[in-house]
Design goal:
This protein has 112 residues and is of the alpha+beta class. The chain has one domain (6-111). It has three helices and four strands, in the order αββββαα. The strands form two sheets. It has a two-stranded antiparallel ribbon with strand order 1-4. Strands 2-3 form a two-stranded antiparallel ribbon. β2 (28-32) and β3 form a beta hairpin. It is globular and about 70 Å long. The chain binds iron/sulfur cluster. Residues 10, 22, 25, 27-28, 40, 42-43, 59-60, 62-63 line the site of iron/sulfur cluster.
């Protein structure tokens, strides 16, 4: 999931609307300052280019829907953290073993 582009993550979470583009969506925002900044309200409207959006992207399942949840960009970090923490099925967690080894070493140092 780490390499999912922003719009791919939206498709992953909400599905895809083949019949529309983001530029037609009520959640699409365009802010005009010195430059034009385009954002998706559902993904999150931050001041960072990490939340920049494109009119031409294929719409997601939230097309035209109101959304009162946490912006996806805020949860994105949590999704990655959970994925990174969860060991792959059948994989041993080296982190836990390292912690156990460190505890055993410390115990030995204290005894000696
Ligand atoms: S809610 Fe979906 S369709 Fe609407 S702008 Fe955001 S990504 Fe595009």
């Amino acid at each position: 999931m780490k390499h999912l582009r922003k719009i791919q993550l939206m498709h992953h979470l909400f599905g895809k609307r083949e019949d529309h583009k983001c530029g037609q969506c009520s959640n699409f925002r365009e802010y005009r300052y010195e430059n034009i900044y385009r954002k998706c309200k559902v993904y999150g409207c931050t001041s960072s280019e990490a939340s920049d959006w494109a009119k031409s992207w294929q719409a997601c399942g939230m097309f035209g829907e109101s959304y009162g949840g946490v912006p996806v960009i805020k949860n994105r970090v949590n999704l990655y953290e959970k994925e990174a923490e969860a060991p792959i099925e059948g994989q041993q967690s080296l982190f836990c073993e390292d912690k156990q080894a460190a505890a055993a070493l410390k115990e030995r140092e204290n005894d000696g």
